[in-house]
Amino acid sequence: MADLDGDIADMGFDELGYDSLALLELSARIKQTLGIEVPEGDMRTPGGTVRLINDMASGKDA
């Protein structure tokens, strides 16, 4: 189990205990909430996912 008291932004989702089903659900929630389609294969870390979403929302190529 990962130590969640520190900075987890750049820890891998697998290190945090996320499996492929959890990432699939996260991807679906992002699409439902923000209208942005992020393939679960592109989500590697929480911080990277946030940066990817911000880039997509601002129209930048990710």
Give your account of this protein's structure.
There is one protein chain. The longest helix is centred in the middle third of the chain and has 15 residues, at 20-34. The protein has helices spanning 20-34, 46-57. The chain has 2 helices and no strands. It is an all-alpha fold and 62 residues long. The N and C termini lie far apart (30 Å).
Q: Mean pLDDT across all residues, rounded?
A: 88
What structural class results from the helix and strand content?
Answer: mainly alpha
Shape: globular
Q: Biggest sheet: strands, sense, closure?
A: none
Runs in which pLDDT lies below 50 for 5 or more consecutive residues are none
- Helices, by number, come to 2
Radius of gyration: 12 Å
- How many E-type strands? 0
Q: Considering DSSP H and I runs of 4 or more, what fraction of the residues is helical?
A: 40-55%
Amino-to-carboxy terminus distance: 30 Å
Beta percentage is under 5%
Q: Give me the strand/helix succession.
A: HH
Please tag this protein with its features.
62 residues; mainly alpha; 2 helices; 0% strand
Summarize it.
With 62 residues, the chain is mainly α.
Tell me the layout of helices and strands.
Elements: H1 20-34, H2 46-57
